[in-house]
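Dear Dr. K.,

Following up on our conversation at the group meeting, I've run the structure prediction for Arsenate reductase from Amycolatopsis coloradensis. I'm pasting the input sequence below exactly as I used it, so you can double-check it against your construct before we proceed with anything downstream. Let me know if the numbering doesn't match what you have in your notebook.
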Amino acid sequence: MEIWVNPACAKCRSAVSMLDEAGAEYTVRKYLEEPPTTKELKAVLKRLGLEPWEITRTTEPIAKELGLKTWGREPADRDRWIEALVTHPKLIQRPIITADDGTAVVARTPEAVQAVLPR
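The predicted structure tokens came back this morning:
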């Protein structure tokens, strides 16, 4: 299991605490320091079953600079969004947990973290 975190984020710290309390084995990836590649991000999006605009933090200053709210949200726009997320990882919603069973969640709630814990 891997969790993408920003250590300054309270939801990330909460998710890590829940993993620790559950005794889960996981790797922490500080995705601002080690941004995902295009291939990695596409794989995570597939596991999440989401489109890139669904995991984009549109209130970040860089999102406003790029004008993301005006970008299209159709299949033809997908690569443009992915490139923005890879280039500006701060735009990626956090935390994201990729579980060993192939599932993944945007772990912003306790329920989402619970969903990927081993039973």
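Two things stood out to me. The chain has a mean pLDDT of 96. The longest strand covers residues 2-5.

Best regards,
J.T.
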